[in-house]
Each structure stands twice: as structure tokens, then as C-alpha cells.
TrEMBL record:
Coiled-coil portions: none
Domain of life: Bacteria
InterPro entries xref list: Metallo-B-lactamas, RibonucZ/Hydroxyglut_hydro, WalJ/YycJ-like
Name of this protein: MBL fold metallo-hydrolase
Transmembrane feature ranges: none
The Metallo-beta-lactamase domain, residue ranges: 12-164
Pfam families on file: Lactamase_B_2
Length: 254
């Protein structure tokens, strides 16, 4: 069984777990070591059970805990060359270099890095395949490409960034330059962008939908749930929210 959980998601830290009976993968670790251990315990995961940490990109909310966690428990890290060369990932003794759209295997999980438009050196997000199920995890992207649309079709599970409501962002308190960055094509996905992407990929396979990286200033979880569920006519109850503090508990991709 393929399953997914979150230690937390948002501008103060992101970390997602993907697991089968055989392998457990962590995508990003944007929390302090102490906080990470606390959050792993909440999900009943001991750090030594982690087979890999995958980096999406070098922004602090994704990598601040990667070095300390990987060094303390000797967990191998997988990253693009650009993220490593940014010099922001800390000292890593055990790492492998990956490239966008070149798949690799961890245990029984097939991993495909998806190159995405975002303002980092070589950002990627990930598509996981195991037990005949397909799960995509996309937390930071300012826009989407035809390749992304193609790869997200027929997914069984999708964790997708719904960062901001466009009106709240542009009428909100951020300085203009930050509004331009967040709202630009290399920034973060708005609710309406996420909805448009969902509308072009949704089919009967999709059973698990999770909204992530929700801005505390420029969005609200209720609005995401309501607007997304209505726009895509989501029949399966709530869209799950990956919360900053609580993340979400283990969910099966079925
Ligand atoms: Zn980022
Ligand atoms: Zn981020």
C-alpha cells in the first residue's frame, strides 16, 4: 500500500512522507531537528526508518533540517545539482545527484523528479509510483507546464500547492516586490491556478486530493476547500489540508 503523511506545510516549513511496507521517503525537511523528531514521532516514524530524503529546492522552508537530520541518522539525500550548488543545503556526507525527468528507485518506490517553474537554482517536485498507484507531490511552483499536465493525468493521489487567493495577495499587506514574486510565474500557485490545473487533469482515478503550502497571510483553508471542491465538482468529501502546525496523518493512496 502506498501512503502519504505530512509533518507540516507552509512558509514556515515543509516535509512530506511517502511510504510503502518496504520503503519510507521524506520529501524536504524545513523544520529544526528537534521539531522534526517531534513531528515524526506524531506519525509513528523513527528517523532510522527513513530510507531517503529528497530535496525539491534550496529554500529555507524546505531544507533547513535536511543536513542535521541526514547527518545524525546517516540518511541518504537525493537532490538536483542546482540545489546542491546553491550552497544552502548544509554539509551532506551521503548524497546522490538527480536530474529532472530521470527516474530512480528507492526500495519498491519508483521516483520521477518533475522540473517546475520556481525561483530556485534547479527546482523539482516528485511523482511516485508503487503498488500500481501514482502519487504526485507539488509544493512550490509559480506556474505549470504541458509536461506537468501530462504527468499528473491518471494520478491516484495528488498533493498540490494552493498558496494564495489572488485578491487576498494583491490587496494584502505584503510589499509590492514580494507580491510580484509570489504571484509571478516563478513564485507560488494561487487557488485559481491550482483549480485550472486540476480541471485539466482530473479523472476517475483521482481519489485523494491534498492542498498544501497554504499562505497564512493570503489564503485560508476554508476558502481553499470550498473553492476547489466546488470548481472541480469534487465528489469525495473534503479536500484534505496540509496544515502548517499539524500537517496531516497517514492517508492511503487507494
Ligand atoms: Zn520555494
Ligand atoms: Zn516553499
Amino acid at each position: 500500500m502506498l501512503k502519504v503523511a505530512s509533518l507540516g506545510s507552509g512558509s514556515k516549513g515543509n516535509s512530506t512522507l511517502i511510504a510503502t511496507e518496504e520503503a519510507t521517503i521524506m520529501v524536504d525537511c524545513g523544520f529544526t531537528l528537534k521539531e522534526t523528531l517531534k513531528r515524526l514521532e506524531r506519525l509513528n516514524v523513527v528517523p532510522s526508518a527513513l530510507d531517503a530524503i529528497l530535496i525539491t529546492h534550496e529554500h529555507q522552508d524546505h531544507i533547513s533540517g535536511v543536513g542535521p537530520l541526514s547527518r545524525k541518522f546517516d540518511i541518504p539525500v537525493w537532490s538536483t545539482r542546482g540545489s546542491l550548488l546553491s550552497g544552502k543545503c548544509g554539509k551532506l556526507s551521503n548524497y546522490s545527484v538527480i536530474e529532472g525527468f530521470n527516474r530512480f528507485i528507492i526500495g519498491d518506490i519508483d521516483v520521477l523528479p518533475i522540473s517546475v517553474p520556481h525561483d530556485a537554482r534547479e527546482p523539482c517536485q516528485y511523482l511516485f509510483n508503487a503498488d500500481d498507484k501514482k502519487l504526485a507531490v507539488l509544493t512550490d511552483l509559480g506556474s505549470y507546464t504541458p509536461e506537468i499536465i501530462e504527468l499528473l493525468k491518471s494520478c491516484d493521489g495528488l498533493l498540490l500547492e494552493c498558496n494564495h487567493d489572488e485578491d487576498m495577495l494583491w490587496n494584502g499587506p505584503y510589499p509590492y516586490s514580494l507580491k510580484q514574486r509570489v504571484g509571478g510565474p516563478l513564485g507560488h500557485m494561487s487557488n485559481s491556478q491550482a483549480i485550472k490545473l486540476l480541471q485539466s487533469i482530473i479523472d476517475d482515478n483521482l481519489k485523494l486530493l491534498i492542498a498544501s503550502h497554504i499562505s497564512e497571510q493570503n489564503n485560508c483553508p476554508d476558502l481553499v476547500q470550498r473553492s476547489v471542491a466546488t470548481a472541480i465538482d469534487w465528489p469525495l468529501g473534503d479536500v484534505i489540508i496540509a496544515e502548517q502546525d499539524k500537517g496531516f496523518d497517514w492517508l492511503a493512496v487507494s
